[in-house]
Amino acid sequence: MGYQGEETIFALASGVERAAIAVMRVSGKGSAALLEHLCGTLPPPRHAGLRRLWHNARTRESVLDHAVVLWFPGPASYTGEDGFELHLHAGPAIIRAVSDVLVEQGARPAEPGEFTRRAVVNGRMDLLEAEGVADLVAAETEGQRRQALAQTDGALSRMYTGWADQLKQSLAWQEALIDFPDEELPPEVEQALLSGMAALLADMEQHIAEGQQGERIRSGMVFAIAGPPNAGKSSLLNWLAGRDAAIVSPVAGTTRDALEIVTTLAGIRVTFIDTAGLRETEDAIEAEGVRRALFHVKQADCVIQMFAADTPPRTVFPGAVLVGNKTDCGPVPESVDDVPVVAVSLRTGDGLQALRAELESRAETLTASSSGMPLLTRARHAAGVREACEHLQAAMQQDWPEMRAEELRLAMRALGRLTGEVGVEDLLDAIFGQFCIGK
Q1: Domain TrmE-type G spans what residues (predicted)?
Q2: Residues that constitute the known binding site for GTP
């Protein structure tokens, strides 16, 4: 039996912005009676129909709107409950009038994420898929859309469920060793058990190691532009922004504080930070700018290290994209310390398309999965998989069969909490409180 909300909830799913159409979503035990009160009769399930909405359809009292109506009887609905949608004209007076009738008939406004929470409780999706829905609604870039859609479609859920099934199989073998201690079981059984656990542990550890990639797609990356004064850092930021975001001046030390712009590279959200020129200085304010520049260099996902054609750097930051500017003023070396140099002229535009291609390639590399597995997207997922790893490692180190079996159960439980199969009531408020109203 699925959960059927005792309270009928409603919300404007299309937001409050000015628009032609407003979508009102309703779900709960009283949905059928509510829709009959508004329309008189229920339309065929999952078929759109144009209906008059009345303040009271039985008495034909006061037409509220002419709306497209869709009826979704449970359990084949988003929430698993009876529900319907009203596609209204989006005038504030219409929305207010329909909302008033819903409240008069016993419905209440939905809390943030309450529709999706009911879908989880009713088994229409698991917690990982629900979090994917939240990420999909918030997606601003192509990379975020692809990752969120894969999670909504169950990519992470299928992988974690598959791991839990492997643990279940290992536990079954382990229980056999416990239940039949006097039997002459082939030694290959014990070896196969340990080999399977080791292979699963390797997959989990690889998944954790790639955790940054998924978070970079979801939250975006930071590229810090660093180098000596007058290397062209601010000019590069302006070119990336497509506008004059930073002051460009031949006077050394013009940039004192970090300046940020946000754009996309290869469908990934990237924040570019223009930092103060790196040099020794007696100026206290400029020195603070240099300190902050070095901080951003350490924290960045990637460093764009710039230099002017005639002054190549003595050292290269680890993993930096090395950019030699001002090719219009002189030759630029092909490499420094075996790191290839992208030669450009921000004055003439030479080499800038090659630089964009290199930055896009770097963004793709920093967000790619080398294993082909779905990527972690949240700290909660990383913590759960890490806990499962710890219990699996402990199981492999146990000599007592009963203790090994218990560690395997705990590893299964850690994965079950990720999908919502076990012990997650304390997480629900925190997870769905981040959703928008109407979802």
Answers
A1: 220-364
A2: 230-235, 249-255, 274-277
Distance, in Å, from the CA atom of 124 to the CA atom of 118, rounded to the nearest integer, reads 8
Q: Are residues 322 and 242 in the same domain?
A: yes
Q: Which of 63-72, 157-166, 336-345, 363-372 has the lowest mean pLDDT?
A: 363-372
Query: Binding-site residues for Mg(2+), please?
Result: 234, 255
| Three-state secondary structure call for residue 9 | strand
List, as residue ranges, the binding site for K(+).
230, 249, 251, 254
Binding residues: 25, 85, 124, 230-235, 249-255, 274-277, 439
Task: Say which residue, 284 or 18, is predicted with more confidence.
Answer: 18
Q: Is the dihedral of CA 51, 56, 61, 64 positive or negative?
A: negative
Residue 216 within any structural domain of the chain? no
Which segments are annotated as binding site for (6S)-5-formyl-5,6,7,8-tetrahydrofolate?
25, 85, 124, 439
Q: What is the pLDDT of residues 69-110, one digit of tens each?
A: 999 999 999 999 999 999 999 999 999 999 999 999 999 999
CA 127 to chain centre: 13
Number of domains in the chain: 3
Do residue 183 and residue 250 come from a single domain? no
